[in-house]
Design a protein that fits this description.
Length: 332
């Protein structure tokens, strides 16, 4: 971007890995002063509309002491990413029209949490267990019968049939197998919250540009994973709720003259979201991909030492996005 601003003095990059209370009233006054000093106009007056999509920049993924810290190759991936991300927001605050924030949102009993499944002995799968279609068909893992009653389903057989169909669809679609994740991004918990430094930057933008940030919750339906904010892994419509393709968000994202995307994790929620967006673009007009800019140094892959490393998957996906016309750029 052009005409970059300086970074406000209150931003402390040493606190990027900390949880703290954002002093809203103080930041409001500073943002008002900032916009006056730099002649920053309200976002509604922007001739060219620039969107910034922040994917799952939450404590649960971005801080080492939380459940699914995205360490990346460096071991400090999400921390380093967020330092650069905050700097990007502040430096380009006068050009970023809208900020859209996605938030992974979970409860205890969901298909990718250990409580959802049991073996013949009543044991639950451990976190980082990959559940294959063969595991389900053989009966190695099956639905916990207590889950069905807790969610008000008529029978455990209904959920068991769904589990089989779910794993079949993942395999047929060439997607990751059903992964049992540690409990994370739990609604109402501190892990669900945005990283404090990012929340502060988003709030500062809201005041300085007089434009409310848009928040998209995803991942709360018990019967499907929802890596992508655009589409769930499995479309569901039942008494719990409707979880289908997010057409309203697709339309919102495609209206921008330029769309920047960052967040966690590069190999999962970022890659799946961008992939879904690219699918929509190719249906409408492949040239629209040229309006999308992926901030490569503001996202990292899932890497758990001696357990799993999705770095190669992330690199292949980003290479595919670039080949389709999307721009790979760095903040620094």
């Amino acid at each position: 971007m052009n005409n970059q601003l300086s970074i406000p003095k209150f931003f402390d990059e040493t606190k990027v890995d900390q949880v703290f209370r954002v002093p809203y009233e103080q930041r409001m006054q500073e943002a008002l002063k900032w916009s006056k000093e730099y002649g920053i106009s309200p976002a509604s007056q922007d001739g060219k509309k620039v969107g910034l999509l922040l994917i799952d920049v939450q404590n649960t993924f971005c801080l080492p002491e939380f459940e699914l810290f995205v360490a990346g190759k460096s071991g400090r991936g999400a921390i380093e990413d967020n330092k650069r991300l905050c700097q990007f927001v502040y430096k380009n605050l006068n050009e970023i029209t809208d900020i859209i924030v996605t938030m992974d949102t979970h409860k205890g009993m969901q298909v990718f949490h250990s409580l959802f499944l049991v073996d013949d002995a009543g044991n639950h799968p451990a976190p980082a267990t990959s559940i294959s279609l063969d595991d389900v068909l053989s009966g190695k893992w099956k639905v916990n019968p207590e889950v069905s009653s807790s969610y008000g389903y008529q029978s455990v057989e209904l959920l068991q049939d769904h589990l089989v169909g779910y794993c079949k669809k993942l395999k047929q679609g060439g997607k990751f197998e059903l992964m049992i994740w540690p409990y994370h991004a739990m609604l109402g918990g501190i892990g669900h919250s945005l990283v404090s430094c990012v929340e502060e930057a988003v709030f500062f933008h809201t005041v300085a540009r007089q434009n409310q940030a848009h928040i998209e919750l995803k991942g709360f339906h018990p019967r499907t994973e929802n890596y992508s904010v655009i589409s769930p892994e499995f479309e569901v419509e039942d008494h719990v709720g409707v979880n289908k393709k997010n057409n309203a968000l697709i339309q919102k994202l495609l209206k921008y003259d330029r769309l920047y995307i960052a967040g966690q994790a590069q190999s999962h929620c970022v890659a799946w979201t961008v992939s879904d967006l690219l699918n929509e673009i190719q249906l409408i007009d492949p040239k629209l991909a040229q309006k999308v800019y992926l901030l490569e140094d503001c996202t990292s892959p899932v890497v758990i030492k001696d357990v799993m490393d999705f770095s190669e998957d992330a690199e292949k996906e980003f290479a595919r996005f670039h080949a389709a016309g999307m721009n790979l750029v760095s903040v620094v």
